[in-house]
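Running co-folding for zinc ion.
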Amino acid sequence: MRMNTDALVLRVKDTGESDRLVTLLTSEFGVLRAFANRAKKINSKMHGATQSLCYSDFSVYKSRDSYIIDDAVAKEVFFELRDDIEKLALAQYFCSLAEELAPEMEPARDFLRVILNSLHLLRTQRRSKDFLKAVTELKFMAFVGFMPDLTVCSRCGNEPDGEMLFNVSEGCLYCQGCGSGEKITPGILAAMRHVCANPVERMYSFSLPENEEKRLAYICEKFLLAQTRRQFKALDFYKSLF
Ligand SMILES: [Zn+2]
């Protein structure tokens, strides 16, 4: 069976002398690990298209228990991110989130659209790293079923009024005095609601002052780590740069 799909290369592992094992985030089949034979050779036509942070059209077939890439044509490359260690580290964190959270053998178009948009905005510097990190983390959480409840206080049911608390383990809001959590301003609450409620193409269209972007990034990261109960080496590395 031959499968054709567009995909972002999340990770590349060299195997043998000239082959690669490539982890793809495909739009049609989610996360897929496939071999690209002879792709390490510089004269291979697949050499560029199977490098990490390359978005390509792939043709893949199944042979026994393995998937083999027999053609790859680059559509967009994000290689410039490699020139800036902070951007590269953040891009690699997005890739490891996608690898961990996106489904396998089912469509993952929304994950792919988020990561491609975030990489594009990271490359063009149209949005800060804090902003992009927060938005990507929060939307991925919503995709995998950890949609936070940002409507009313979970204890008394009152509408948010002024500064509220966001409980990262429960994924819900409390007024001060009704429960515990991270303090969030009305601006940060509005931003989180915006990301959760809007489709991918509109979710980036909001702005916050720089200090609130930082706070949003801090809260979304805590939320993601509390909900997934996982550690991400790429995140630890990214944070070690600051
Ligand atoms: Zn309350």
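Result summary
The pocket of zinc ion is lined by residues 153, 155-156, 158, 174-175, 178 (CB under 6 Å).
The CA atoms of residues 142 and 196 lie 7 Å apart.
Job closed.
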